[in-house]
Structure formats: structure tokens, C-alpha cells
Amino acid sequence: MARTDLFSNFRLGPTALANRIVMAPMTRSRAGAGLVPSELAPLYYSQRAGAGLIIAEATHAQPEGVGYIDTPGIHTDEQVAGWRRVTEAVHRAGGRIFLQLWHTGRIGHHSFQPDGGAPVAPSAIAAAGNAFTREGPKPFPVPRALEAEEIPGIVANFALGARRAVEAGFDGVELHGANGYLIDQFLRDGTNRRTDAYGGSIANRSRFLLEIVQAVTAAIGAERVGVRISPFAQYNDMNDSDPHALFRHVAQALNPFGLAYLHVIEPASAGHPMAAPAGTERLLPSLRRLFDAPIIVNGGYDKASAEATLAAGLADLVSFGAPFVSNPDLPARFATGAALTPPDASTFYGGGAKGYVDYPFMEQLKASA
Fold this sequence. Notes:
Distance between the termini: 41 Å
CATH topology: TIM Barrel
CATH architecture: Alpha-Beta Barrel
Number of strands: 14
Helix content: 25-40%
Number of helices: 12
Order of helices and strands: EEEHEHEEEEEHEHHHEHEHEHEHHH
């Protein structure tokens, strides 16, 4: 019987993975001028090339999709060149890397928009909370509801971003349909109050995602495309009246595309803020039954809970976020049982090398002991 533990190999379409440990996409807000990946980005990612798969930080495929300070793009030649330096470094180190594509939708501010206008969303419903602008925190504005005739342009830009990602050397792309950004805003009825073909029923609310998937898979091949969802996340002021029905539909609707994977944020711990609400069933078991391609699971997992999830057959791979920030050699530490270095949350976003490329490897810790 083939091994299914964290350290067994796996294949995502044409992409061979050395293990089932995935580095989750994490915004680090360190892009430079022109929102080009910083000069430190190749080192940061190549340090973590021991992951079976790296999913690089959320990257906007169009200028209108920006919602945070210093997040990188993939819509200019300079950005493509910057990302190519990253992918070359990761591949030299023996790693595999996908790029996560996003549009932040209503989670933004006028100051990020090229024309200074309101950010866009499926409906004109402002999110609670603040945007973090260069002038400090400012309340999220009321977004402008997209006109139906504008939607094909956004879909086309996702496909163009995917083609540019492949041009930059990425092994594939992940579509960010989670955590309250534009695709998720269309999916959930707490943010989508449209009455046209993109609103109302679950099938209609799923249409935007499926049109993007259709365009991106046609552009670069379905075997190089993954989708991320967060069924129960309330992050960015999100909610839905029936997330179980919604995301079961999404899983089944994605099947015909033959995707590389579905990346599901659903923690094993019931107390986690992104877990299924108390008293309701977990969604992951039914997604496993309904979705035909591989599943990556994410959400506060440690080595033990990750191994248990794989052993139970609920997922094929497990992604880790913060542990990879402070442990560039996380797979080696899992393999040896070495202690993990805790992350410094004050350096998660913005800044330079500190908290980015200066976390020690095990060998460095042993040498200094």
C-alpha cells in the first residue's frame, strides 16, 4: 500500500511533489516600487523550498484588485520579471511553486484604486472594519456594485494573470476564493444581494467563480489550477445563510474542470475561528466525497493533526502558514521532531529582512547552542 503520511510524495497533475507539506499563501506586504516582488523575495521563498509545494502570497492580476499596502502584482512586465527571479530560485533549490491570484473587491479603499474611485463588489455593502492605507487605518468605504457588463473584463484579467504567472515560471496558480475577497463576496449571500444572473440562487452566486475557472483553465490548463475556499470564515465581515449547501454545490460544480486541487480552510479543532460553528457538522468529509480531485486542507494544523487528517483520508495534503514564516525548514523539523521557532507577529507585514529571511535553520540553532 502506498504511503500517505506527510513525507510521502504526491503528484498534482504534471507537478511532482516530494512531500505533502504545503506552504500556505501568506501576505507579507514587502513588494517594492511598482508592486514588484522585493529583492529579498527569492531568498524568502527558496529558503522554504523543502515544502512539497509553495503557494506564493496573494497577487493581484489587475491594478483595480489592490486592497493592501505593498502587495505584489502580476500585471506588468516588471512584476513578471520580479516573480521570475523567485521561481528560478525556488526551482534551483528543488521546490515547486504556484501563485495565488486575487482581487480584494470591497476589502480596499479609494486610495488604492487607479482612478481614486470606490472599490468594487457584487453589491454595495460595506465591510465592517478598517482598510490599512498609507495614511493609516480608514473605514472600509461602501463599494460600487459591479455592472454585469464589467464582469467579463475581470474574468479575462484573471486569465491574463494566470498566463503571466506561467510566463514567470510558476508551476501553476491558485484562485483565491476565500477569506472575504471578491470571489468569496460573490459566493456568499451576506455580501451578494444581486438580482441578476450573478445573484440570488447558489448556482447564480457561483457563476463568477466558475467563469473565472473556465477562463483560467482554458488559458493554462486545468491541471495547473487550484481553488481556495473558506466555508465558515467570518474574516472580513463575511457570512452565509447556508455554507454547507453553498460549498457542496461549489465542489460539485468544479468537478468537470479536472482541477489540480481544492484548498479548503477548515480547521480540525472545533474551537478555531474558521471551523464549522458549534453544533454543526464538519464540511470536509462531504467535500471529500463530492470533489474528485486532490484536496489540500488548512487551518491551524500541527504535525499530529495533519497526520491524523491524512490517515483518515480526508485530505491529500496539508498547508501550514505561520509555522513556515518562522521555520524555513519546517518539513525537516517535522521529520526530526525538532522544536519549532515561534513567529514574531510584529514582523508579519511590511519591513525588510527582519522576520522575513533571518529565521534560523536547525543547523544554525545547533551551531549556536
